[in-house]
Amino acid sequence: MPHLVEIAPSILAADFACLGDGIRAVERGGATLLHVDVMDGHFVPNISIGVPVVASLRKATRLPLDVHLMIENPEQYIPLFAEAGADMISVHQEATPHLDRALSMIREHGCKPGAVINPATPVSMLSEVLGSLDHVLVMSVNPGFGGQKFIPGALEKIRQLKLARERYNLTFRIEVDGGVGPENVTELVRSGAEILVAGTSIFHTQDPAEAVRSLKQMAGGALAQRA
What we know:
The chain is an alpha/beta fold.
């Protein structure tokens, strides 16, 4: 049951002075999700955007908002991001001792729950929650900054998640974030990735719409080979 592959442009890499234009460009290119990185300067060494920006994005686009919380105490903020218009909310396994509770909160607030694992975290750390997830996000860089180099170990994690999903007859989707671009899309999709988060390789090009189109085309080709 191959799921369709979605390209999720990461607005962290967009020009914030003309964010609306950037969003319209990736919509023209056929993006079906927007990835929104929320960083608190504690869990990761950087500060990005918060609830008000998500609320503004909600007014600027009809695309689903995939909100990735790279923050400590995520439970405290889940209701606020849900209210601001998030459609999907992902929390890091490493950021809360109460992952199951956080995921339940996300669902209770009407959003799709996802769990995220950093490069040093094995897939096995999610074994108890895989059945209650809409998606699993595999970090293929250490979170906190855009433009980093892809860590190849992510491919094996994607394969492990795909196997676990088949073995236990689960339905979660597999998402990957970090260093995703034309050079690794084919391999990622063949390994089992279905949501490809791409920032620099879309927004730091001359034509973001064309960059999305090109990634979608490559992903579609790889999916056809996989099937």
